[in-house]
Amino acid sequence: MALDSRKIAVAIAGFCAFLNLYSPQALLPALAREFGVGAAEISAIMTASALAIALTAPFTGAIADVLGRKRVITAAMLAVVVPMAGAALAQDVQVLIAWRFVQGLLLPPVFAVTIAYIGDEWPPAQVAGVAGVYIAGSSIGGFCGRFIPGVLGDLVGWRGAFLALAGLSFMGAILVALMLPREKGFVRSDGLRASARQMLRHLKNPQLLATYAIGFGVLFNFIAVFTYVSFHLAAPPYLFSSTLLGAIFVTYLVGTVVSPMTGWAIARLGRRRFILAVIAAWASGAVLLLAPPVSAIIAGLVLCAACGMLCQTISTGYVTAIAKDGRSSAVGLYVTSFYIGGSMGAFLPGLAWNSGGWPACIAMVIAMLAGMALIATLAYGRVTA
Question: Is the pTM of this model over 0.90?
């Protein structure tokens, strides 16, 4: 059977986006030591990129609704190489934060527009499955973005690690430019003003608003868990090195396996029942993270990664199903909510860490999961597909 180059290309786009986004996570304790700052302060480099994504995502969607999909995706993938290389040369935390913010500005054209491309180019019945392929690529990118810098950080330093990721990002951009076909199902918007009106209509859709809220919670919990677990395991009695911290993110790869199954599960269980089951399993994984044995923590991370990827696949696929027109702007609004959640997931658990340590961070995660379950129960009550 011939490989579908479109699916490979969207997987590479997801890979490169998350390779860049999460690249400092395994290095945070080392960066905090080098620059002489605390956990909450160094985590600002995660907040900066997430906040930048949140600010620009809906405008990116509107621009893509006018200019087209592939052009925007490939231009952004090439441009994002620059801030990654710039971050490698940063001499203080403020400059590093600034480069991370610029990087965040350039990532929405990859996140939002690739999902919109999927919604345009595949039949509705296949969208959830192809979104799962994209999320699978994202999960591999998220793992590599943590594991590669963790290993290289110990071997050649964090600057060399960031430069290596810049090279990988450039290669990925070239592959997508060559493999991703020009869009065929795309209907060009009448202009930015028309796209703005579409965004206002999206904000009046209760199903979309609920999905945006769930997306907020998904990345809030992802960032909270996978940022502060590094500080938890770098401290006594664990004392993990950067390489070991990078290695624990192999748990992220479980998303590669489970995400493509989302369409199958929704078809059999219904969206509401499936997402509630996933959230319940996610809460169980969060509780496991409080256990002292490393094996229990790893098991908890596996559950958190798998359930987070499933929730993300469910919600992104549903956005493209609900939005019949202006899909880029609809996905852009989702990405905005998603990354506002991510910026808050780096900031608020930092306050919890300062006051109550790791248990306080996990308590915040569980509270967010409870809110997501309530939203899904109320908003998806009549949704079965």
Answer: no
